[in-house]
Amino acid sequence: MNRNFAQAIVLIALMALPLLAFSPIQSTNQPIHSTRPRVPAPSTAQISTLVKNSGCSLPAAQCLATLNWSGYAITNETNSVTFVGASWTVPAIAGAVGATCPDPDRTWLDAAFWVGIDGFNNGYVEQTGTSSDCLYGQVHYYPWYEFYPAISYPLPSADQIAPGDTMYAYVNYTAPKFGIWIQDKGPAHVWHFSLYGTNAGAPRTSAEWITEGAAGCITSDCSYFNFLALTDFKSVTFTDTSATVVCSACVTPGTYTFPVSSAAWGASVYWILVTTVFYPPPAPFIRAIPTTAENGDFTVRWESSGP
Fold it and tell me: Could you list the mean pLDDT of each consecutive 10-residue stretch along the chain, which spans 307 residues?
């Protein structure tokens, strides 16, 4: 656990001043998660075997295992990414009935679905998305944004999201600010939200479409924190994916806007699965895995909540 990550979680506990004008989730009966940059899984023979047998259709060097991300990323040089966007449908928590969800251990399971700039190979992320959480047996579906290393904030529409709602979100950059847009197209709810903010030092080296097992406070005083168990969301499909990148590693270098599935990305695109946090024991296993990206779409399948 690096020092910056620990400091970020402490900020969550102290409810530090918000980056922008909106207050973070503060109620004790609601999740306070923290998404964060990609945490690579240590290189072991077991992890390599998991990746090799996972069905990744990209060259081996572009097939990665992490402890928190599953999905796709495009990466390039500093100050190269200006836009990333996609749609998805808010997934229901498997086995949930009304406001309750299956949680025999009375713990916290989180699954965050987002688009963002940065985080693949640096210590920043500018992102927005939705989460499907099971917190002490209670269901929580909520939209949020985060400019890591600042903390995560729920949106003013936090009570207006439901499984089956179709979301569209993007993050863009127009100097000197990042903009986020997230829209609920219904059918249960219809709203949109946008804001602009700075994230000083963000290098804009990557674009992502990610399902994440986030981190959070395990105790009420935040004296212990860790990666959270991954909510059983069955699957989520990212559609209408798009990124704008100054791409030096593309088949033909230049500035392009392509979906994640475009062959033109060449060596710039990475396929990412999320594996267990602890290994061995127990032996590592996959928590979530993406399908091959085709026609601008891909699906992330839930495999396990974790150890």
Answer: 32 24 36 86 92 95 96 95 98 94 83 98 96 92 92 76 96 97 93 94 97 74 68 97 92 92 94 86 90 97 89
55 occurs within a structural domain: yes
pTM (global) more than 0.85: yes
Q: How many residues does the chain have?
A: 307
CB 89 within 8 A of CB 188: no
The count of other CB atoms within 10 Å of the CB of residue 256 is: 18
Quote the CA–CA distance of 199 and 212 in Å, as a whole number.
Answer: 21
Q: Residue 199: what residue type?
A: N
| CA separation for the pair 36, 222 (Å, rounded) | 17
Measured CA to CA, the distance from residue 217 to residue 226 in angstroms comes to 7
> Are the beta carbons of 96 and 290 closer than 8 angstroms?
no
CATH of the domain at 24: 2.60.120.700
Q: How far apart are CA 20 and CA 212, in angstroms?
A: 23
User: For the chain, how many structural domains are there in total?
Assistant: 1
Report the Cα–Cα distance between both ends of the chain, in Å, rounded.
18
**What distance in Å separates the CA atoms of residue 127 and residue 114, rounded to the nearest whole number?**
7
**307 found inside a domain:** no
User: Does some domain include residue 276?
Assistant: yes
Distance between CA atoms of 144 and 116, rounded to whole angstroms? Answer: 12
Locate 121 and state its tokens.
């190979």
Q: Strands of 225-227's sheet, edge to edge?
A: 33-34, 215-217, 225-227
Tell me how far CA of residue 182 lies from CA of 1, 32, 68, 88, 120, in angstroms.
31, 20, 22, 11, 21
The residue type at 240: D
Q: 247 is in which domain, residue-wise? A: 3-302
Interatomic CA distance for residues 101 and 78, integer angstroms:
43
Contact 14, 147 (CB under 8 A): no
Is the sign of the CA dihedral 248, 176, 241, 66 positive or negative? positive
